[in-house]
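Protocatechuate 3,4-dioxygenase subunit beta
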Amino acid sequence: MTGFIDINPPYLNPRYKSTVLRAPRKRLIQLPPEWFHRSPGPVFGRVAVRPGDNDLTTQHPGRPIGQFITLSGRVLDSDGRGVPHTLVEIWQANGAGRYVDTADPGLMPLDPNFTGAGRTLTDSSGHYRFRTIKPAAYPGRFRGMFRPAHIHVSVFGPDLGSRIITQCYFEGDPLLPFDAIAQSVGDPRGLDRLTARLNWDDTELGDVDAALAYDWDIVLRGREMTPREPLT
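Structure:
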């Protein structure tokens, strides 16, 4: 049996130039186990999650521009058990590759009918579901960089040490092999865990707002854990 393989991206990755400025320069400090909270439930505090917060296509009066999709799956612990009633948040670019963020220097247009952020709580079996649009690819801040379509995801597990912030990609994206952030994972198995798969059986058909269905499970820790996002 082989030992544990860390598939998380390194803090410092010269190809992803933001990490050169933000990676720790000193040796990391090992915290004692008792430092972490061991509360029995989620630790995200009092967060209002309203019905419909998981549908990013109905947050405004008009229809957002782009291909409608659903992103669904389960939040799992290291033993493959669903993590119930935990907060999952997403944020993303719109159908033109632009974020609703003053820090986004892109020249692509904003969509007045798409904010690009949503949240939901997993059910008793750890299932979650979002309805949104597929984000467009966009050029990165550094020369020679073009980001593939992706959705940012934050998940709070049952204790402080099991929060994960990561990115979800889509199978078959031709830009994945050239993306410094995705490739910073290193191990192909790790990148595979960041990739959502098309589920044709669950895809909605026969309507102008039909949505392609994508499946993606999130594992908080253990050998099959979903890699975290590198420093951004």
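The helical segments are 18-22, 180-183, 188-192.
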